[in-house]
Amino acid sequence: MTTTALPADPRGRRTWALVALLAVGCVVAFVVSVWWGTGSIRISPVKAFESWTDPDNASRLAQVAVEARSARAVMAMAVGAALAIAGSFLQLLYRNPLASPEITGVTQGSVVAVVVYLAYGSTSTDEAIWFLPLIGCAGGLGAGLLTWAIARLGGRVDPLRMILIGVLLGGLLFSVVGIAILTTDEFSQDLIQWTVGSIQVATWDRVWILLGALAIAAPLVLYAVPLANGLGLGDDIAQGVGLGVNTARAIVLLAAATVTAAAVSLVGGIGFVGLVAPHLVRSRTGSDLRRLLPASALAGALLVAAADFAARNVRPGDIADFFGVGADVAPTTLPTGVYLALIGAPFFVHMLRRLP
Amino acid sequence: MTDKSSVSSNETNRAITGHHHADATSGAPNELRATAIDAGYDARQVLHGVDCSALEGKVTALVGPNGSGKSTLLKVCAALVSPNDGAVHVCGDDVRQLRTRDVATRLALLPQGPATPPYLTVRDLVEQGRFARVGPFGMLRRRDYGAVAEAIELVGLTEFVNRDVDTLSGGERQRAWLALALAQETPVLALDEPTTFLDIGHQWEVLELVRRLNTERGLTVLMVLHDLNHAATFSDEMFVLQSGRVVANGDPWSTLTVELLRDVFGIEASVTPDPNTDRPLIVPHAAAPRATPLDS
Q1: Which residue from A277, A302, B119, B160 has the least number of CB within 10 angstroms?
Q2: What pLDDT is attached to residue A17?
Q3: Cβ contact (<8 Å) for A240 and B121?
Q4: B198-to-B118, B171, B202, B203, B208 alpha-carbon distances in Å
Q5: B77, B96, B100: best mutation site toward chain A, by most A Cβ within 10 Å?
Q6: How are beta strands B107-110 and B188-192 bridged, if at all?
Q7: CB of A198 closer than 8 Å to CB of A268
Q8: According to the model, what pLDDT value does residue A46 have?
Q9: Which residues of A touch B150 (CB under 8 A)?
């Protein structure tokens, strides 16, 4: 038997160069976020570092600012990475370039659970910090399970059926959010913020909850990678190479739903990143998840970090002034999700022009 | 040039495939047997009590007019479609008793016209063929890389290994999908109309490659073919299907008779020896009036 050596894979090299670049970008984004956060306090990276290593000598204000800003930056990146991972999985699972966490119903399920709980169920203000994320996660996974169960009614689970059912369920659930917002006076602002996704609420406690959830999901995600790669080739090929197609599909959906629910239950219905991030890197990394996933996760992290940076530093009043409209009615800040859509949409149009 | 003289022996077969799953095949012949198959989709019954086999070291062709059930039969044989009745044995094992993963180490399938995802290189595609052999996290080991390289070399795509599959020509693309099946290192290969959408040169290129895999590697091949002359030239055994039943089977000379061509395929044709291969050469000259189902 001959043993041949195949020519080296330039895409592998390009991928790791891109991953390294994006990783550096994330570090830079973190430093800039801590340095240049909301309001007037500028904290140089050196000062920020000192407030960690030598907390006794640092000013209280600097400590608070560094803690809040670093938590927010890490939260933004973790959320971006999680949603980008989910989007990468789902685009292969559904064999559809427009697939994203929103079309599984998971995002909406999680948002609905949290919003309904805040509007009607919450009685005490001193509940455990992990309680709300848990409700969000349960809502998200419940909606994903429902999508799966309805799609299964016809026997074989077909990707197109899953998309249609997920979109339908998502629409239905979002109408519940609408009802909750319209019938609740007190904190409808908060609920709306939650619906479009906001990272303002980040604290290190909540960051650790998210990172913990993602760490628990990591083995599932890794296990799902070869399954999703196989499913991307079509059912017949996937089964031919040895995948139990329905089981594989359930595992991949579960992996995507878990990371989505974890992220959304902490920051609300952040959209767009799961759709856009994989497209940003795919032409360099290829469709194979072994390379696409790390690059896409970092791209998502950077994207949300950038959007959150805008959310913290661009005051809506300035934008309104610029266009000469109703500056006095603008809120002081807009939720991150709004900027994400503003950044993401033009990017996506650019991507679409290059699609085959 | 005859195929039968060069069909590789049992021993060669084992040498190529045996060490990968010595326990899996446990000395059973590398053959595929479908017995008394009833199968269909929902209410529509497509196959009625079909017996079909692809014997060790042979190339077996499934032919028949449109809608005769040949593709369905291949899918049943490859365990993609579960029969309502009857059994399929691959290398001596009942596929109902096997996990999907274990079927994939015995039989590799090339379906008809698979859709090619964008941004996927030949290498990435062919590596998927190792799914049933790698560990749970899909890590490829040295032997997997060797099998992938060998499969790509066999189909002659080594220099295209880093090209995206959707940028290849039709013939190259079909060879890439074939390499995916070959990377599975199975003793049995099932192909569903491997020449569809290819021009005549690429059709022959693919079929000659399949024959070479059969003679040099001892692969047992079962393929659905549309073109009767392809079947006559490249197969050792033929099964002719009509309306979900096997109406003829045997070597090409005994199967492809003037009467069969008229009754089953609806053509008036002459069958003469091909001067180059001594295989039957079918030259149609008119469409025959269709036989009613009662006549056949």
Answers
A1: B119
A2: 94
A3: no
A4: 20, 6, 6, 6, 14
A5: B100
A6: parallel
A7: yes
A8: 72
A9: 1-4
Q: Which helix (H) or strand (E) holds A312?
A: helix A289-313
Residue keyed to tokens 């449109």? B66
CB A202 within 8 A of CB A75: yes
Question: Tokens 């927010």, residue?
Answer: A72
Integer Cα distance of B218 and B15 in angstroms: 10
Tens digits of residue pLDDT in A91-113:
999 888 888 998 888 999 998 99
Indicate yes or no: CB of B117 within 8 angstroms of CB of A244.
no
pLDDT higher than 50, residue B7: no
Nearest-CA distance B158 → chain A (Å): 7
Q: What is the mean pLDDT of residues A39-55?
A: 69
Q: Rounded distance, CA A274 to CA A103, Å?
A: 10
Asked whether the beta carbons of residue B80 and residue A239 sit closer than 8 angstroms, the reply is: yes
- Virtual torsion, Cα A99, A100, A101, A104, nearest 10 deg: -20
Residue of B nearest to A282 (CA): B119
Is residue A296 over pLDDT 50?
Answer: yes
| Weakest mean pLDDT among A36-50, A111-125, B233-247 | A36-50
Nearest to B119 among A10, A244, A287 (CB): A287
Buried b (16+ CB within 10 A) or exposed e, A223-259: bbbbbbbbbbbbbbbbbbbbbebeebbbbbbbbbbbb
Query: B7, B236 in Cβ contact below 8 A?
Result: yes
* Predicted structure pTM score: 0.87
CA dist A60 → A40, A55, B44 (Å) = 15, 9, 77
Contact B104 A240 (CB under 8 A): yes
Across B2-16, B30-44, B161-175, B230-244, which has the greatest mean pLDDT? Answer: B230-244
A225 and B137: CB-CB below 8 Å?
Answer: yes
**What mean pLDDT do residues B142-165 have?**
92
Q: The tokens of B220 are what?
A: 């047992």
Say yes or no for a CB contact (<8 Å) between A241 and B104: yes
